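pasting for the record
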Amino acid sequence: MSDRVEMPQSRTLPALLNEMAVRRPQAEAVVGGHRRLDYATLRQEARATAKGLHALGIGHGDKVAILMGNVPEWIIADLAVTMLGATVVALNTWATVRELEYMLGHSDAKALIVMPRYL
């Protein structure tokens, strides 16, 4: 019996998530804070988030800013944006209001995903 792990065949992050959700659905994919997500759950949450973003008009080529701390929801949001063919604009949670205004004003972001509270 071999412990050898087969290398993924996927070429994009959404495809890799799909591949791992099929290949190892119950394997832990993300552990952070109060959450532990297996690949199947991560894919389900990323797809649900992508569906919500799409309903808001986000699509291929759009830019979506994310302002969140180091939490699993950041990964879910990033995957959801990528699934839609949009681009993530990652914002620094340590930025001042003035810096955030500048970054958002110059990023061409169509949407901003934030947490209700951070720091």
